[in-house]
Amino acid sequence: MDIKFTDLCLKNPENSTLTQFAEEIDKGLSLENKRLPSWLIYDNEGSVLFQEINSLEGYHPTYCETEIFHAHKEDIAKLISNQPFNLIELGAGDGRKTTILLNYFIEKKLDINYIPIDVSEGAIRNLSNSLKDRFENDSLNFHGLTADYFQGINWLNENSSQRNLVFFLGSSIGNFDIISAQRFLKHLKDSLSENDLVLIGFDLMKDPKLLHAAYNDPQGVFQKFNLHLLDRINEELGGNFNTNKFIQSGTYNAKSRAVESFIYSVEEQTVRLNSLDKEFHFDLWEGMQTEHSYKYTIPIIEKLAEGSGFEIVNHFFDQNHYFVDSLWKLK
Question: Is residue 25 within 8 Å of 40, Cβ to Cβ?
C-alpha cells in the first residue's frame, strides 16, 4: 500500500478552517433563533465521536449502507471498471463502509487511487493507519487530502487526468436543506469532467418514530457529539460554555422534512467568547440548532439530480428501502 498526504489548508492561511469557524460561530450565535452548522463539530475529537454514532445499533444509515455495499459491490464495480480511476471520498471518516468496496475492487484487480478528503487532518491520518493494517500487502494507492471538498477536487484536477468516482456517503447530503443541497451539487458538477461519476447516500423518509430513536440514543452519544461543539468553541475562541448547563434532543420536523437536533440551555445564562470580544445570552430552555438531517423520497432525489445537472445511472437500496446509494453521471 502506497501512502501519501497533502495538507492544502496550510497553503491558504487567509482562508483557514479556524477563520471560517470563528465567522460561523459569530454569525450563528448572533441570530434571533441561534443556529450553527454541524460541520463545526468535526475537529479530530468530533470525528471520533461521530464514529461512535456510526457504531450505534439504532443508527440505521450506517448499517443500511453497509448492507447496500455488500449486496451491490459487483454491480457497482461493473459500472466503473473499464478504466483507471480516482475514488474520491468526501468526509471519509473511518472508511469502514468504503473498505467493503475497496476490498472487492482490489480482488477484481481494478486500477484505483483512493483519495479521501477531510478538513480534519487527524481523521485522514487515522484512516490511513486503519487501511494500512488491512491493505499493507495490496496495490492500493492512498493519497489523503486535508482540505475542504472543492479545494481538494480542484487540486486533484490539476494533478491527475484519471476518471473520478466521487463518494458522498452516510447521508451527508442531508446536512443541507434542499436549496443548499442543489447549490452544492451544481458546484460539484461544475468541478467534474464528462466521464466522472458520483455515488451519493440518501437517508429515505420512514416512520418518524424510527427517526426519533436513531437520533436520541439511550447511551447519550448524540448528546456528547453535539455538546462537543461547545467544548470546541471554548478551546478555539476562548469561550466559557459549561456543557453541564445544556442538553441535546433531536426531533423530526414535518415542515422542513428533516430531523433537527437542538441543544437547550437549562438555565438563563450569558456566555463570553474572548477571541470575538463578545457575549451571547441564552434564555431558560432556549434552543440552538446544531444538526439538520433532511429525509428524502425517490421523486425528490430524481428532481435534485435533474436540477443539478446530473442524470441517474442506478439506485442501490437496502432490503427495507430505508436508504439508497444513488449513482449519477453528468448530463
Answer: yes
Measure the CA–CA gap between 214 and 279, rounded to whole angstroms.
34
* Crossing angle between the packed helical segments 298-308 and 178-191, to the nearest 10 degrees: 40
Q: How confident is the model at residue 121 (pLDDT cuts 50, 70, 90)?
A: confident
CATH 3.10.100.10 assigned to domain 59-207+296-330? The reply is no
Tell me how far apart the alpha carbons of residues 102 and 81 are, in angstroms, rounded to a whole number. 12
313-329 pLDDT per residue, tens: 999 999 999 999 999 99
Please state whether beta strands 197-203 and 246-253 pair in parallel, antiparallel, or not at all (unpaired): unpaired
| Cα-based distances in Å from 29 to 33, 159, 176 | 8, 40, 19
CA atoms within 13 A on the CB side of 325: 28
Q: List the domain boundaries for the chain.
A: 13-55+209-294, 59-207+296-330
Q: What's the CA angle centered on 26, arms 23 and 32, to 5 degrees?
A: 135
